[in-house]
Design a protein that fits this description.
20% of the residues lie in helices and 34% in strands. The chain is α+β, with helices and mostly antiparallel strands and 145 residues long. The protein starts with 20 loop residues before the first helix and ends with a helix.
C-alpha cells in the first residue's frame, strides 16, 4: 500500500480500522491469550515470535472523535521477533527519509507515520514491528464522523 491512498500498513491482510476480531482469528487462528475484556488485546504465538493485536476501545473512539462503529476493529498489530537478524542497515532504514528515527542508549525506533509502520531495534537487531493506522487514514476517518 502506498501513502497516497491514505491506508494503514497491513499484515497478513489485517488492517487498522477495518479488520475485526473474526478477521484476526481467521488469519491467525485461536489466540494463545484472550485479554479483550481486560485490555482489548489478543495474543498469538507465531513462527519466530509472537503477535499482539490491539482493538479500538470506546475510550479511543471518544478521544479521537471517531465513529462508534469503529469500536472493536483492529487498532494496532505488534510483532515481537525472537531471533531476527534484520538490522536498520539491512532494512534500508538509516537513509530512508520516510522514517523518523528516535534513539536512546541501545534502542532505535523508526516510524513511518504516513504508512503506519514502525520498527524497534535493540542492539541493532529487530525486536518489534508495529502496524498501525496511518496519519492520513486517521484524518480521513475523523473527517467522515
Amino acid at each position: 500500500m502506498s501513502a497516497q491512498d491514505g491506508r494503514a500498513a497491513s499484515w497478513k491482510g489485517l488492517e487498522p480500522f477495518i479488520s475485526t476480531r473474526a478477521d484476526v482469528e481467521r488469519a491467525l487462528g485461536v489466540p494463545a491469550a484472550d485479554q479483550v475484556a481486560e485490555n482489548s488485546t489478543l495474543h498469538f504465538n507465531v513462527a519466530g515470535g509472537s503477535v499482539t493485536v490491539f482493538f479500538v476501545t470506546p475510550k479511543f473512539v471518544a478521544a479521537k472523535k471517531l465513529s462508534p462503529s469503529l469500536e472493536g476493529t483492529v487498532l494496532q498489530i505488534v510483532l515481537q521477533h525472537l531471533n531476527a537478524t534484520d538490522t536498520p542497515e539491512s532494512m534500508n532504514l538509516i537513509k530512508n527519509k520516510a522514517f523518523d528515527r528516535q534513539s536512546k542508549d541501545q534502542v532505535d525506533f523508526f516510524l513511518n507515520a504516513k504508512e503506519g509502520v514502525g520498527y524497534t531495534f535493540v542492539g541493532d537487531r529487530l525486536k518489534t514491528t508495529r502496524y498501525s493506522y496511518s496519519s492520513e487514514q486517521l484524518a480521513r476517518i475523523q473527517r467522515r464522523k
